[in-house]
């Protein structure tokens, strides 16, 4: 399978330079926050949105494509940059902020920081902010499941 490179552009905003792609001509916009190893010029299943009449705004995360690593270095800063970028082409509402893998943090942050802008969030194999389960739950799980496995082993082998 060959992935075709799509045309992108850059914008210089207060938070830094960002590479993005705006495709489609629908009245509603979906913002795509890619995970690692992706950039705005590569589409990964976004055709479902353009085929249903949406515009797609895809951004390259800091350190990917032509977005420098120094641009908006936190999910909050990148969410603010994206909200500012949305206003440039006149986007007043985002139909969905889609967070793919590591882009999930930014999609959630954008919805939390800009609820007037984001209607919904779609997460695809998204990475969370906090490791789950927490340390106490992991330790309790090990204790319960290891004890259960040991008991089963004892009954099975007659030890």
**What is the number of strand segments?**
6
Instruction: Give the topology string: H per helix, E per strand.
Output: EEEHEHEHEH
**CATH fold call of the largest domain:** Rossmann fold
Number of helices: 4
Task: State the CATH class of the largest domain.
Answer: Alpha Beta
Major beta sheet, specifics? Answer: 6 strands, mixed
Average of per-residue pLDDT values: 87
Number of domains: 2
Question: How big a fraction of the residues is strand?
Answer: 15-25%
CATH superfamily of the largest domain: Alpha/Beta hydrolase fold, catalytic domain
Chain oligomer state: single chain
- What gyration radius follows from the Cα positions, in whole Å? 21 Å
Distance between the termini: 54 Å
Q: Sum up the overall morphology in one term.
A: globular
Strand sequence of the main sheet, in spatial order?
1-2-4-3-5-6
CATH architecture label name of the largest domain? 3-Layer(aba) Sandwich
């Amino acid at each position: 399978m060959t992935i075709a490179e799509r045309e992108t552009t850059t914008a210089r905003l207060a938070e830094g330079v960002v590479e993005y792609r705006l495709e489609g001509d629908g009245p509603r916009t979906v913002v795509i926050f890619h995970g690692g190893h992706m950039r705005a010029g590569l589409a990964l299943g976004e055709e479902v949105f353009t085929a249903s009449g949406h515009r797609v705004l895809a951004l390259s995360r800091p350190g990917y494509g032509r977005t420098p690593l120094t641009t908006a270095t936190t999910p909050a800063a990148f969410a603010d940059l994206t909200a500012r970028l949305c206003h440039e082409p006149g986007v007043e509402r985002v139909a969905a902020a889609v967070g793919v893998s590591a882009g999930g943090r930014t999609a959630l942050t954008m919805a939390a920081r800009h609820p007037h802008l984001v209607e919904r969030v779609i997460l695809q194999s998204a990475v969370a902010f906090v490791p789950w389960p927490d340390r106490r739950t992991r330790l309790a799980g090990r204790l319960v499941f290891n004890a259960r496995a040991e008991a089963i082993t004892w009954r099975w082998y007659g030890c």
